[in-house]
Amino acid sequence: MSANPGFQQFQHAFARHLRDPHHVSRPPGIDGRRARIYQRLLFNNLRGFLDRCFPVCRALLGEARWTRLIRCFWRDWPLATPWFREIPREFVRYLNDGEIAMPRPRWLADLARHEWAELAVDVMDAPIPSHDAHGELLAHKVVLNPAMMNLAYDWSVHRIGPDFRPRKPQPTFIVVHRDAADEVHFTEVNALTSRLLDLLAECENGRQAINRLAAELGHADSAALAVQAAPLLAGFRERGIILGTTP
């Protein structure tokens, strides 16, 4: 139990005021000018992280709507993480799960997740596992790059920009990975390739993954599918999406 519950209550009251100064009164004893300075510092700090992570979202919404959206996030979302680099992740969660009254494009949450993925993969703590870089992918367990995200979207997020704002959903699949030089790359794939990557992570070897994919597709000739998949898997290994096989 806290030795000073009154101080904790004061902290919570002050935090509520800083998040929503227009509707929550500041606690007694707090100078208004100092509170406004502190509020601006906190908000501008928060906004700085979001501006850097979501430049396309910001540009397409415009400064006024972007600022309003960040204020709603700051006010309404239970932002409890102490890590600044996790703030963009929480913003993506807010766009997906928060109760947001302000009008916004239907594709905004997907676009934000697409922009955030670069940061997420860049800072991912993903030690490289032991692997055989030249192992036979069909015969052995495939080792995928641990610094990778296999993402599915309802909208063609990689095309959204000043010259293109989609009107209709278009299922889109993008693999984001970090290479050996710590550079982050985006690779557009189709639904089958995205599913194959998921199966490679689950199955004992590449052939088993292809057999399962063939069964899901109702494809009678899994051997023919394996022949078609071979150059795809080789390309993934060359790019660093696949590292190799277990030793």
TrEMBL record:
Coiled coil: none annotated. Residues 145-236 form the NGO1945-like C-terminal domain. Residues 9-95 form the Putative DNA-binding domain. This is DUF2063 domain-containing protein. Pfam families: DUF2063, NGO1945_C.
